[in-house]
């Protein structure tokens, strides 16, 4: 139950299943990869929006919590993305605006997942040393 995906950009990603499903737990599950992709897509938007506004972003972490339906197909029903941004003098209102723009307009992944799941966001801003 291990798989190697080759992307259009020429990169490879390993995936595996849980041991009770025939996998060996050597790589992320395919459904985990969906969440990783959504977090990466949204983080990219948030950082780009802030950088274009000349904000000093030094780090962005996205913590994702999700719930899935109990029956097949076990789609995501709730997804929460919590952004932790680190920078110098980052304006909390600018961060909130960037997160909202990504969530509502730019992030194709979260917009798509929002067709089956309630997607919510939160954020915090940390001052860098």
What series of H and E elements makes up the topology?
EEHEEHHE
Rg, alpha carbons:
17 Å
Order of strands in the sheet with the most strands?
3-4-5
Please tell me the total number of domains. Answer: 1
What structural category do the secondary elements indicate?
alpha+beta
Q: So what's the overall shape? A: globular
Provide mean pLDDT, rounded.
96
Uncertain runs are: none
Question: What's the architecture, going by CATH?
Answer: 2-Layer Sandwich
Organism: Inhella inkyongensis
InterPro entries: KH_dom-like_a/b (IPR015946), OsmC/Ohr_fam (IPR003718), OsmC/Ohrsf (IPR036102)
Protein name: Putative redox protein
Pfam families: OsmC (PF02566)
Summarize this structure as a short list of keywords or feature phrases:
129 residues, alpha+beta, GMP Synthetase, Chain A, domain 3, two-stranded antiparallel ribbon, 3 helices, 34% helix, globular
Describe the structure.
With 129 residues, the protein is α+β, with helices and mostly antiparallel strands. It has a single domain (29-127), classed as 2-Layer Sandwich (GMP Synthetase, Chain A, domain 3). It is built from three helices and five strands. The strands form two sheets. The chain has a three-stranded mixed β-sheet. Helix 1 packs across helix 2. InterPro entries: KH_dom-like_a/b, OsmC/Ohr_fam, OsmC/Ohrsf. This is Putative redox protein. Pfam families: OsmC.
């Amino acid at each position: 139950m291990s798989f190697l995906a080759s992307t259009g950009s020429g990169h490879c990603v390993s995936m595996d299943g849980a041991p009770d499903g025939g996998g060996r737990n050597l790589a992320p599950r395919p459904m985990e990869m969906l969440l990783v992709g959504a977090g990466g897509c949204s983080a990219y938007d948030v950082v780009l929006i802030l950088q274009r506004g000349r904000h000093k972003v030094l780090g962005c972490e996205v913590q994702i919590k999700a719930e899935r339906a109990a029956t097949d197909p076990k789609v995501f029903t709730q997804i929460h993305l919590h952004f932790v941004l680190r920078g110098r003098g980052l304006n909390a209102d600018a961060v909130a605006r960037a997160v909202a723009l990504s969530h509502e307009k730019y992030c194709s992944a979260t917009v798509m997942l929002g067709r089956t799941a309630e997607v919510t966001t939160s954020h915090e801003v940390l001052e860098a040393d």
